[in-house]
Write a sequence for this structure.
C-alpha cells in the first residue's frame, strides 16, 4: 500500500462519512425534539435521490403525488382532531399547509418534467416535495402517540419505514437510478481528484453542522426545541408549541435526508432500499454521539466511513463484520465513560 | 376464572385444534410459525418489556440454536433430541459472552450494541465455510419419536406449542417470584433495586441469557421445521420483526408475545394472499402492513394484550393475607455502648462543586436523628454517601465500628441500613405487596430455576408474609393488592417505608417521609417511628416539616451548602442564629 | 363498542384464510413464489411480469396460477411452498428468485413429491434431484463463454469482484474451477454488497493488482458500480460481466463506462440476430415482443424469460402427463416428472432443455451468448 492509495481511501471514507454525518444530524435533530428514532430517515434519502433523478430524466416522480395524498390524510387527521376547537384560521392554515403546498409542488413538478429544467429547479422541487412528506408523516403517524414510550415510537418508525420503502419500490422500481452530476468542475490535489460533487458534499455537511450547532446552542427557538424533548409538559407550560416543534423537526430531517440523497445520487446508484443501510450508518454515528452532540456525530460518521473504506480495501468480504464488530467496543467505552445516572423510563 | 384455569383451557384448545374437522392444513403451518415467533417474543417480553433492555439481536440467538443442530445432525449424524441440549448450551454460552458486554452498555448504546453484534453474527454466518456460507445447511432430519417422523406441519405443531406453553408457564412463574420482582424493578432504574440487595448487573445478565435460550429453542425448532437453515432469517430485519411482535402484543405481558406473533403472522399472510396484484413494480402488501402497524400502535400504544385481557373474566387475586412462617430476624449483635453510625469528614465533590463538605455526625443506637437544611444543602447526597450510591471523595463512614465506605449499596443494606427515596421509586404496575416484598430480597434464597419450577413456594410464602406484616404495620393493609402507581404520593412514601422495614434494618434512612401526608397521617407516621425506635431501631431522616422534626428527633444536624452549620437537640437548634440565617436568608 | 370492533376485526381477519378450501377441480394448479419485494425485487418483478404472457390453458386444461411474494426470505418461501402443497393442492411449484429461498422451496417440493422449477441458480444435492429442475443457465455453462473469450484474447491473469452472497460465491468457485484449469491465474478476489454506495477500496486493490482482465460476478444494475469505478480509476483492460447483469438498465446506469464490456447473456437478449433454425429464436421473439409492448422498448429481461420458459416447458410436458393421470393426483405429478425426463430438445427463450436424472439444468452452449456494448447498444460477439 502506498501513499496514493492511502489518500484515495481516506478521501472515499471522508466523502461517505460526510453523507453519514448528514443523516446522523437528522436523527439527532428528530430525537432531540421528539424522542423518535427516525428509521425512515433512510427513506428520505431514497425519496430525495430518486425524486431528483426522476425530475432530471424528465419523469414525474411518484413522490409528488404521495406528498399530495399524505397531505390530504394529514388534513383529515388535523380536521378530526380540532373538531371541538374549530376556527376559520385553523382551517385556512391547514388547507394551505396540507393541501395547497403539495398541490403546488405537484403542478410545478409536472411543468418541470415537461421541459428540461435546470438542476437548481430540480433540487428545489425535490426539497419542496420531500420536506413536507416528513411533516405530514409526523402529523399522521407520530403526533397522536407523541407521549408514548421511546420503544413504541421506535416500532411506529419501523412501520413507517416499511410503508415508505414499499412505496419507493412502487414509484421507482427495483433497478435503481443515477442522476447527472450537478457540476463537472474538478480539481486535482496531488493524486486526489476532487470533483465539484464531492466538494458539495463536504460544504453542505460542514455548513449544516455549523448551522445546527448555532441554531440549537445559540438561539432561543433552538433551545426551546430541545426543551420539548426533555419535558413536553414543561415545555408547553413555558409556551413552546410541542406539536409545531415536532413538525418542524421532521420537516428539517426530511429536508436533510433529501439533500443527502440529491448529493449522493450522481455519485452512485441509489435503489429503493439503499436508504436503510446508509441510514443505519448515520444511526451508528448519531448514537455514538449520544443522540445529542452534533460534532461528535460528525466525527463518528467520518470514522465509520474511513473504517469502511479501509476494510473494503483489506478484507472486502468481511467489511460488514469488521464495521459492526468494531462498534461494540466503542459503545462499551462510551458507556463506561458516561456519568452514572439514574435512567428513568416510562 | 383463575389464570391457571384459563391457561389449561388455552392448552386444551390448542391441543384439540389440529384434530378439529375442517381445519385447513395450511393453518397448521401458520400456527407453527406463530409458535416459533412467540418463543422469541416471549424472551423479548422479559428482556425488553419487563427488564427494559431493548434488543434487536434476538434473531442471532435463533441462528445459534438453528446452526448448532444443523451442523451436529448433518455432519455428525446426531439425533435431534441430542442436539437440543447442545443448541441451548451453545446459545446460552454465547449469550453469556455477548451479555457480559451488552448489559454494561447504557442508554441508547444498548440497542445499538445489539444491532451491531446482531449484524456481525449474521454476516459471519454467511462467511463461514462450515456453516455452508450463504447457502446454509440443508438436509436436516426431522424430529422423530420412535418411528414417527415429524415431517408435517401438523405433527411438529405439538412440539412447538408444548415449548411455547411450557416456556410461558416457566416465565410466569419466574416473574411471580423473588427474582421476578427484582427483574421487574430493573426498568424503573437501578437505585431502588440495588438499595435492597439486588445485583442488577447479574439480574440483567440472567434475563438476557433466558431470552437468548428461548430464542435458541425457537431456532432449534425452526431448523427441524424447515429442515434447512441459511443466514437470511437471522438478520437485522428478523431482529426488528421480533421486537415489533412483542410491542404489538404488549411488551410487558407474557401472553402479549403469543398474541402479538399471532397478529403479525396472520396479518402478513392475509396481506400476502390478498394484495398480490399486478401493480406495476412492487407490492402494496408491505405498504399496507407498515400502515396497519402504525394504526395498531396508535389504537393500542401499550399493546393489544392488555386491551383483550380487559374483558377476560379473570378473577382478581384473592384478598386474603398471605400466610407463611416468620422469617428469621437479623442476629442480635451487642450494640450497647457502640456508635451505630459514625460519619467523619465525609466529602463529595462533583467536578469543582463541593456537594458535601467534610460533614461529621454520629447516630447512637435507638436514636432518631434528623438531617435538615434548605434545598441543595447536600442532605440527599449525604444519604447517597451512606448508602453507597455515591463514592465519597474523602472521609470515613463506619457502622458499629466497621468501615462501610466504598461498599456497594447491596452490601450496605445487608449490614442493616435500609432507606427510602426522596423521589419515590416504586414499580407502578406492581401491587403494593409485590413492591414491599422487594425489600425482603436478601432474606430469601430461591434462584431462577427453583422459581421457574415453583420449588420456591415455601421461601416465597415467608417473604410475602413478611411483606404483608410490614404493610400492616404501616397501616396500608387496605391497599395491599392495589397497584402502587394508583396510590397517592403520600401513601407511596409509606409503602417505601414498609419496603425498607422488610430488609430488617437496624438503621432506617428516610428521605422526606412526611411530604404529601395529611396532618393525621403525619401523626400516625410519627407514632410508627417512635414505636420502631422503641423496638430498638435507629432512624436518620431528612425532612422539611419542622414541626414534625422538632417533635420527633432527639438530635438534629443542620446542613447548608454542603457544610454542617449546627448540631444539637431540637431546642438548641431552634435558637441557633446560624440556622435561622440559613433558613431565612442573611437579612434575618 | 370496543368489544364489537375487536370481535369484528378478529372475524374479518380470519375470513380470507378459511375461504380457501375446495379449490380442486379440472384445472392444473401452479404455485409460484417470487421475491417481488426485498433485496431481490429486481429479479422477482420481471419474473412476475412475464406471467402476463404465459398460456392460460395447456392441453385443453385450465391453468390456475397462484403467485406469492417471499421477499427473498427462505422462511416465507417455505411457507408459500407449503401453502401451495397443502392448501392449493398444487401440481407444480416454481420459484424463487434467488438461491436461498429456491433451496427452501426445493426442500418442500421434494418432500411432498411435487415437480419444482427453480428460477435461480441452485446447488443440487441428492435430496433435491428427484423433483427439482432449475431453469437459469448454470454458472459453469455461462462462465465457459467468458473464459474462452479471455483465453482467445491472451488474458493470463484475472481479477474478480463480485457480490458477497451466493451469487458471488458461485462465480468465484467456477472461476477457480474452470479458468484456473485453462491457465488463467486469479490475482484478486474482492466482494461488495448490492446496496453498497462505494466500491473504491475494492477497485483500488484490483487496479493495484493490475490483472489482464476483470470479471464482475454481480447481477442487476449494481453490477454497473464496479464497472464505472474501474473505468474512473483508470483501469484499461477488458471487463467481463456475468449474465445476471445483462439488461438495458445496466447500460442506463453505467453510461459511457459500459462501452466495450463483455457480458454473458442468455439468447433472449438478442433473438433477432439468431439463425432461423435456432430453437431459441421463436420463443425469444415472442416473449420480447410481448414484454416490450407492455413494459417499454428495451425492457426485455432474462429473469422474465426464466418464468416464461417454465411455461414453455410445461407446454411440452403437461399434454403428455395429462394422458396418464388427471390433475391434482400424485400420479399426475409423477407423470410430469417422467415427461420432463422423456421429452428432449424442449425449446425455450433462454435455451434448449434436455433434462436427465443427474443433469437438472439440462441446457448446453445454446443457452448463452456473448454481448458487448457499442454506442450504448448491445451487440452480439460472434
Amino acid at each position: 500500500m502506498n501513499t496514493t492509495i492511502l489518500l484515495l481511501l481516506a478521501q472515499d471514507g471522508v466523502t461517505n462519512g460526510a453523507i453519514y454525518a448528514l443523516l446522523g444530524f437528522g436523527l439527532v435533530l428528530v430525537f432531540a425534539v421528539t424522542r423518535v428514532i427516525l428509521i425512515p430517515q433512510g427513506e428520505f434519502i431514497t425519496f430525495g435521490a430518486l425524486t431528483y433523478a426522476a425530475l432530471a430524466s424528465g419523469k414525474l416522480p411518484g413522490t409528488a403525488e404521495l406528498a399530495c395524498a399524505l397531505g390530504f390524510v394529514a388534513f383529515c387527521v388535523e380536521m378530526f382532531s380540532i373538531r371541538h376547537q374549530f376556527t376559520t384560521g385553523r382551517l385556512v392554515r391547514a388547507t394551505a399547509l396540507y393541501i395547497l403546498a403539495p398541490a403546488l409542488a405537484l403542478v410545478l413538478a409536472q411543468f418541470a418534467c415537461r421541459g428540461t429544467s435546470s438542476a437548481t429547479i430540480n433540487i428545489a422541487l425535490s426539497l419542496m416535495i420531500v420536506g413536507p412528506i416528513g411533516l405530514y408523516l409526523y402529523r399522521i403517524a407520530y403526533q397522536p402517540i407523541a407521549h408514548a414510550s421511546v420503544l413504541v415510537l421506535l416500532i411506529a418508525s419501523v412501520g413507517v419505514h416499511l410503508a415508505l420503502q414499499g412505496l419507493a419500490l412502487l414509484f421507482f422500481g427495483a433497478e435503481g437510478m443515477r442522476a447527472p452530476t450537478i457540476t463537472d468542475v474538478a480539481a486535482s490535489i496531488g493524486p486526489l481528484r476532487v470533483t465539484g460533487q464531492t466538494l458539495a458534499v463536504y460544504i453542505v455537511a460542514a455548513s449544516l453542522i455549523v448551522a445546527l450547532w448555532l441554531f440549537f446552542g445559540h438561539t432561543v427557538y433552538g433551545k426551546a426545541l430541545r426543551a420539548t424533548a426533555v419535558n413536553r409538559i414543561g415545555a408547553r407550560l413555558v409556551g413552546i408549541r410541542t406539536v409545531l416543534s415536532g413538525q418542524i423537526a421532521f420537516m428539517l430531517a426530511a429536508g436533510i435526508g433529501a439533500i443527502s440523497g440529491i448529493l449522493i445520487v450522481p455519485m452512485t446508484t441509489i435503489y429503493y432500499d439503499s436508504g436503510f443501510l446508509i441510514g443505519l450508518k448515520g444511526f451508528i454515528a448519531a448514537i455514538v454521539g449520544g443522540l445529542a452532540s452534533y460534532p461528535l456525530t460528525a466525527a463518528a460518521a467520518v470514522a465509520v466511513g474511513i473504517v469502511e473504506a479501509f476494510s473494503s480495501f483489506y478484507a472486502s468480504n468481511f467489511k460488514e463484520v469488521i464495521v459492526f464488530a468494531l462498534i461494540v467496543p466503542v459503545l462499551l467505552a462510551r458507556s463506561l465513560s458516561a456519568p452514572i445516572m439514574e435512567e428513568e423510563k416510562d | 376464572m383463575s389464570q391457571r384455569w384459563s391457561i389449561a383451557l388455552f392448552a386444551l384448545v390448542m391441543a384439540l385444534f389440529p384434530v378439529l374437522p375442517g381445519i385447513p392444513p395450511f393453518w397448521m403451518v401458520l400456527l407453527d410459525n406463530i409458535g416459533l415467533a412467540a418463543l422469541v417474543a416471549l424472551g423479548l417480553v422479559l428482556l425488553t418489556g419487563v427488564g427494559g433492555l431493548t434488543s434487536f439481536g434476538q434473531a442471532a440467538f435463533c441462528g445459534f440454536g438453528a446452526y448448532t443442530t444443523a451442523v451436529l445432525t448433518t455432519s455428525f449424524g446426531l439425533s435431534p433430541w441430542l442436539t437440543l441440549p447442545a443448541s441451548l448450551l451453545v446459545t446460552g454460552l454465547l449469550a453469556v459472552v455477548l451479555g457480559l458486554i451488552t448489559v454494561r452498555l447504557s442508554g441508547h448504546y444498548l440497542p445499538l450494541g445489539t444491532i451491531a453484534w446482531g449484524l456481525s453474527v449474521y454476516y459471519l454466518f454467511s462467511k463461514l465455510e462450515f456453516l455452508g456460507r450463504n447457502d446454509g445447511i440443508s438436509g436436516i432430519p426431522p424430529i422423530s419419536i420412535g418411528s414417527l417422523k415429524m415431517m408435517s406441519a401438523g405433527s411438529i405443531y405439538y412440539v412447538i406449542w408444548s415449548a411455547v406453553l411450557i416456556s410461558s408457564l416457566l416465565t410466569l412463574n419466574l416473574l411471580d417470584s423473588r427474582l421476578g420482582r427484582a427483574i421487574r424493578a430493573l426498568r424503573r432504574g437501578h437505585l431502588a433495586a440495588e438499595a435492597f440487595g439486588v445485583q442488577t448487573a447479574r439480574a440483567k445478565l440472567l434475563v438476557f441469557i433466558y431470552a437468548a435460550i428461548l430464542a435458541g429453542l425457537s431456532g432449534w425448532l425452526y431448523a427441524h421445521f424447515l429442515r434447512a437453515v441459511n443466514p437470511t432469517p437471522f438478520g437485522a430485519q428478523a431482529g426488528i420483526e421480533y421486537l415489533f411482535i412483542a410491542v404489538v402484543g404488549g411488551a410487558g405481558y407474557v401472553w402479549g408475545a403469543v398474541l402479538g406473533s399471532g397478529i403479525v403472522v396472520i396479518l402478513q399472510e392475509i396481506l400476502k394472499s390478498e394484495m398480490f396484484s399486478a401493480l406495476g413494480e412492487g407490492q402494496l402488501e408491505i405498504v399496507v402492513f407498515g400502515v396497519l402497524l402504525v394504526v395498531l400502535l396508535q389504537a393500542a400504544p401499550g399493546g393489544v394484550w392488555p386491551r383483550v385481557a380487559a374483558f377476560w373474566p379473570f378473577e382478581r387475586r384473592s384478598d386474603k393475607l398471605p400466610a407463611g412462617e416468620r422469617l428469621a430476624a437479623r442476629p442480635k449483635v451487642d450494640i450497647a455502648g457502640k456508635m451505630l453510625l459514625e460519619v467523619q469528614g465525609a466529602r463529595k465533590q462533583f467536578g469543582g462543586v463541593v456537594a458535601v463538605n467534610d460533614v461529621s455526625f454520629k447516630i447512637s443506637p435507638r436514636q432518631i436523628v434528623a438531617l435538615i437544611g434548605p434545598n441543595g444543602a447536600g442532605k440527599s447526597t449525604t444519604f447517597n454517601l451512606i448508602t453507597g450510591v455515591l463514592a465519597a471523595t474523602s472521609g470515613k463512614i463506619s457502622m458499629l465500628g466497621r468501615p462501610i465506605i466504598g461498599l456497594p449499596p447491596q452490601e450496605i443494606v445487608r449490614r442493616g441500613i435500609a432507606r427510602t427515596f426522596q423521589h419515590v421509586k416504586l414499580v407502578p404496575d406492581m401491587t403494593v405487596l409485590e413492591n414491599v416484598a422487594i425489600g425482603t430480597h436478601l432474606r430469601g434464597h430461591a434462584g431462577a430455576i427453583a422459581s421457574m419450577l415453583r420449588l420456591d413456594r415455601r421461601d416465597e410464602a415467608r417473604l410475602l408474609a413478611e411483606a404483608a406484616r410490614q404493610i400492616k404495620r404501616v397501616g396500608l393493609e387496605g391497599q395491599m393488592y392495589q397497584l402502587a402507581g394508583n396510590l397517592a404520593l403520600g401513601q407511596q412514601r409509606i409503602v417505601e417505608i414498609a419496603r425498607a422495614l422488610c430488609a430488617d434494618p437496624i438503621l432506617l434512612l428516610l428521605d422526606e417521609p412526611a411530604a404529601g401526608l395529611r396532618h393525621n397521617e403525619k401523626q400516625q407516621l410519627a407514632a410508627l417511628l417512635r414505636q420502631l425506635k422503641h423496638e430498638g431501631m435507629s432512624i436518620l431522616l431528612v425532612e422539611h416539616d419542622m414541626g414534625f422534626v422538632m417533635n420527633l428527633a432527639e438530635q438534629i444536624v443542620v446542613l447548608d451548602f454542603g457544610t454542617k452549620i449546627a448540631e444539637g437537640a431540637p431546642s438548641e437548634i431552634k435558637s441557633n442564629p446560624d440556622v435561622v440565617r440559613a433558613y431565612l436568608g442573611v437579612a434575618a | 363498542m370496543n368489544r364489537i370492533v375487536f370481535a369484528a376485526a378478529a372475524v374479518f381477519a380470519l375470513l380470507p384464510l378459511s375461504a380457501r378450501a375446495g379449490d380442486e377441480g379440472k384445472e392444473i394448479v401452479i404455485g409460484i413464489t417470487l421475491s417481488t419485494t426485498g433485496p431481490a425485487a429486481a429479479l422477482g418483478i420481471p419474473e412476475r411480469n412475464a406471467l402476463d404472457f404465459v398460456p392460460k390453458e395447456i392441453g385443453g386444461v385450465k391453468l390456475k396460477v397462484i403467485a406469492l411474494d417471499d421477499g427473498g426470505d427462505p422462511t416465507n418461501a417455505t411457507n408459500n411452498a407449503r401453502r401451495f402443497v397443502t392448501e392449493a393442492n398444487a401440481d407444480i411449484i416454481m420459484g424463487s428468485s434467488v438461491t436461498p429461498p429456491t433451496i427452501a422451496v426445493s426442500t418442500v417440493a421434494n418432500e411432498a413429491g411435487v415437480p419444482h422449477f427453480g428460477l435461480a441458480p441452485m446447488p443440487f444435492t441428492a435430496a433435491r434431484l428427484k423433483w427439482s429442475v432449475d431453469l437459469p443457465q448454470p454458472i459453469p455453462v455461462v462462465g465457459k463463454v467468458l473464459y474462452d473469450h479471455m483465453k482467445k484474447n491472451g488474458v493470463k491473469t484475472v481479477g474478480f469482484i463480485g457480490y458477497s452472497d451466493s451469487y458471488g460465491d458461485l462465480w468465484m468457485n467456477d472461476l477457480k474451477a474452470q479458468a484456473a484449469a485453462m491457465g488463467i491465474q486469479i490475482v484478486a478476489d474482492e466482494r461488495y454488497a448490492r446496496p453498497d454506495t462505494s466500491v473504491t477500496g475494492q477497485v483500488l486493490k484490483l487496479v493495484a493488482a493490475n490483472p489482464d482482465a476483470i470479471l464482475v460476478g454481480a447481477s442487476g444494475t449494481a453490477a454497473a458500480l464496479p464497472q464505472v469505478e474501474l473505468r474512473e480509476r483508470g483501469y484499461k483492460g477488458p471487463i467481463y460481466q456475468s449474465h445476471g447483469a445483462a439488461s438495458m438498465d445496466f447500460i442506463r446506469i453505467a453510461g459511457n463506462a459500459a462501452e466495450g464490456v463483455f457480458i454473458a447473456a442468455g439468447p433472449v437478449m438478442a433473438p433477432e440476430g439468431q439463425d432461423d433454425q435456432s430453437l431459441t429464436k421463436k420463443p425469444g421473439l415472442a416473449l420480447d415482443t410481448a414484454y416490450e409492448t407492455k413494459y417499454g422498448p428495451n425492457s426485455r429481461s432474462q429473469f422474465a424469460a426464466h418464468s416464461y420458459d417454465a411455461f414453455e416447458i410445461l407446454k411440452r410436458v403437461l399434454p403428455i402427463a395429462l394422458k396418464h393421470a388427471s390433475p391434482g393426483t400424485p400420479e399426475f405429478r409423477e407423470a410430469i416428472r417422467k415427461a420432463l425426463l422423456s421429452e428432449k430438445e424442449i425449446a425455450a427463450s433462454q435455451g434448449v432443455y434436455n433434462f436427465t436424472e443427474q443433469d437438472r439444468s439440462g441446457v448446453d452452449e445454446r443457452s448463452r451468448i456473448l454481448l458487448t456494448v457499442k454506442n450504448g447498444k448491445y451487440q452480439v460477439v460472434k
